[in-house]
Specification:
With 354 residues, the chain is an alpha+beta fold. 40% of the residues are buried. Helix 3 packs across helix 5. Helix content is 31%, strand content 28%. The protein contains eleven helices and 21 strands. Strands 1, 5, 6, 7, 8, 9, 12, 15, 20 and 21 form a ten-stranded mixed β-sheet that branches. The chain has a three-stranded antiparallel β-sheet with strand order 2-3-4, with helices on one face. It has a single domain, classed as Kinesin (3-Layer(aba) Sandwich).
Length: 354
């Protein structure tokens, strides 16, 4: 399988919201075809190029098919470690891109046309498993990082903090994290919705349902070891086990970058925002260093936050990474939009060894 050694950032521009339109915000971000965005104001005039850009009219299906997500699923089945993460300002459409409408539940499912990258990837994974005739063992784990504490979103009872460990074989991992087996689309979607409803969210000036934690849902894919007989002239050897393959498909919904004064946050919300911003800053710092030519690397500070520790293998190791940069076209969000675009531009230069 041909695998790109670079992290692949794509950009999605959401439509102006009703609030932004009523407020009289101008549209300052315009897509230039399928591979560039132009930011134009009195003080800024810049064009950013990416492999793929989705404008405000792009459907959820178009984003799934055009992002390379289908290939990522196939690579995970083939034993690679694959990660997709969405980042951008709070309220820029990250959770919608990954999951679809926030209001959906098991009793009130979303319209099929509005389903996000996660549900479409689950369906693709199960479809590929059936078409290949392979015997795959599938399981899922789901955690959030809230105020630098790792909490299991699938374990019953109140969320409790999990310790973060490191080993030579696994890298950084959350100890005692629950992993749940599944075999059907209904089962994995149920796990996704159950876990998502336990995530920490709050309302503030920028977003009525702002995610206050980073969430990581990981699908573990293990192909069962098969057996084959090896025939040589004049003799037949005993059946030998084919090596089993273990791949992962990890979805990371990052909490939104934000300026505390813009959100009107105070007290606990302010503490949450500062914790979010510190971990995103640590992630940006790692990406900046990884984007330098390999000979100029000194030390990548993955240990600066729980988030960068858990993403270490995805960013600079043996993983394959798809980064979805979500931005608002509003003049009111210009500063954060430029920050997200610069962030994504740096990520293009990150190379891995999948």
């Amino acid at each position: 399988t041909s695998v790109s050694p670079h992290a692949r950032p794509i950009v999605r521009v959401r439509p102006l919201t009703c609030t932004e339109t009523r407020r009289g915000d101008r549209r300052v971000v315009h897509s230039l075809g399928d591979s560039a965005v132009h930011v134009s104001t009195a003080k800024h005039d810049a064009t950013f190029s990416f492999s793929t850009v989705f404008d405000a009219g792009a459907s959820q299906e178009a984003v799934f098919e055009g992002s390379g997500m289908r290939q990522l699923v196939e690579l995970a089945i083939d034993g690679f470690s694959c990660t997709v993460f969405a980042f951008g300002q709070t309220g820029s459409g990250k959770t919608y891109t990954l999951m679809g409408p926030l209001a959906q539940s098991e009793t009130q499912p979303a319209s099929p046309a509005l389903l996000g990258l996660m549900q479409r990837s689950f369906a693709c994974l199960l479809e590929q498993s059936r078409s290949r005739g392979s015997d795959l063992a599938l399981s899922a784990s789901y955690l959030e990082i809230y105020n630098e504490q790792i909490r299991d979103l699938l374990s019953p009872g109140p969320p409790c903090a999990l310790p973060l460990r490191w080993s030579k074989t696994r890298g950084f991992y959350a100890e005692n994290q629950l992993s749940v087996d599944f075999q059907s689309l209904e089962a994995i979607v149920s796990l996704l919705l159950q876990g998502s409803q336990r995530r920490r969210t709050s309302a503030h000036a920028l977003n009525r349902h702002s995610s206050r934690s980073h969430a990581l849902l990981t699908i573990h894919i293990r192909s069962q070891a098969g057996h084959q007989s090896i025939t040589l002239p004049m003799r037949v050897l005993q059946p030998s086990a084919c090596p089993s393959k273990q791949g992962t498909l990890c979805f990371v919904d990052l909490a939104g970058s934000e300026r505390v004064k813009e959100t009107g946050s105070s007290g606990e919300l302010s503490v949450e925002a500062n914790s979010i911003n510190r971990s995103l800053l640590a992630l940006g710092h790692c990406i900046s260093l990884l984007a330098k030519p390999r000979g100029k690397w000194t030390h990548i500070p993955y240990r600066d936050s729980k988030l960068t520790r858990l993403l270490a293998r995805s960013l600079g190791g043996s993983g394959i990474t798809l980064m979805v940069a979500c931005i608002s076209p509003s003049s009111h969000c210009l500063s954060e939009t430029l920050s997200t675009l610069h962030y994504a531009s740096r990520a293009r230069r990150v190379t891995t060894r999948p």
